[in-house]
Amino acid sequence: NKGLEINSLTVEYQEGHLALEQMDLCLPEHSIYTMIGPSGCGKSTLLRAIAGLVQSYTGEIKFNDQSLRKQGTALIGLVPQNYGLLPWKTVHSNIRMAMRISDSGRHTKGQQEQQITSWLTAMGIADLAQRYPLSLSGGQQQRVAIARAFAILPEIMLLDEPFSALDAITREEIQTIFLENWISHPTTTLFVTHDVEEAILLGEKIVVMPSNKEEPPVIIDNPVFQI
Ligand code: ADP
Ligand code: ADP
Asked: Which residues form the ABC transporter domain (predicted)?
């Protein structure tokens, strides 16, 4: 199966307390799914398990039939709600460092520099390259985080309520620019949000997580999503 496949995923942080219970989900390669659901239903846990940040789970997480248990099997871009930028590095260095870690010598330094410039331009923040994250607005920082996630050319992109802290106008701008960039680089993407409008705007399918963990998620085709 091409794409991301979650089979019977169970995560138990503390004994007797399941964060996820036998969850199944498939995302075809190059698809974008949004996910909504009540607080505590396990959305962040799911993203963290896919990203390799939760190791103690039962079940399987696979990408293109390869288990993701082994680190480095698939390159994953993660965009957390709080941006996750290193405050002591410039915007440029934040992106360059992520590329250097993920690229392992495939591109020359010159090619990487070109890529950084082109992603910053695509996100509308070319003029911020030498700024430090804490001197930027939340919207600007989130643009940097998204530029960084795209710049590593990931096979899977995971976003955890990335826009929820932004004001409405900024959020709309960034949603649009994110979607444009995704369309030109349609990496397999799972986008968690608590905003139903955002789920409809950005997801070709919408995964609705149940509050009762014993029930399966409901997956809705989204006729509004068109690319
Ligand atoms: P959501 O993102 O949908 O709000 P989470 O994945 O954050 O849900 O949480 C799912 C459940 O796991 C919740 O009951 C939460 O309290 C619990 N949980 C999350 N992270 C931890 C942790 N690090 N240690 C213990 N319990 C946790
Ligand atoms: P390190 O992580 O290796 O300690 P940094 O990530 O702080 O270093 O980045 C320093 C390097 O980034 C320098 O080699 C510098 O040439 C390069 N650099 C920083 N900004 C730019 C830029 N705008 N264009 C090209 N190179 C840059």
From this structure: 4-227
Contacts of 183 (CB under 8 A, 6+ apart): 227
Q: Kindly give the pairing relationship between strand 156-160 and strand 57-63.
A: unpaired
Q: In degrees rounded to 5, what are phi and psi of residue 142?
A: -70, -35
ipTM given for this complex: 0.68
- Residue 113: count other Cβ atoms within 10 Å of its Cβ: 14
Residue in 88, 96, 99, 108 to alter for ligand 2 test, most ligand atoms within 8 A of Cβ:
96
Pocket test of ligand 1: the residue of 13, 47, 81 to mutate, having most ligand atoms within 8 Å of its CB, is 13
- Measured from the Cα of 39, ligand 1's closest atom is 4
Ligand 2 midpoint to CA 81 (Å):
26
Residue having the nearest C-alpha atom to atom 12 of ligand 2: 93
d(CA 150, CA 194): 23
The whole-angstrom separation of Cα 152 and Cα 49 is: 20
92 lines ligand 2 (CB under 6 A): yes
The token pair at 138 is: 């939340």
pLDDT in tens, the chain (227 residues): 899 999 999 999 988 889 999 999 999 999 999 999 999 999 999 999 999 999 899 999 999 999 998 877 889 999 998 999 999 999 999 999 999 888 766 788 899 999 999 999 999 999 999 999 999 999 999 999 999 999 999 999 999 999 998 999 999 999 999 999 999 999 999 999 999 999 999 999 999 999 998 899 999 999 999 87
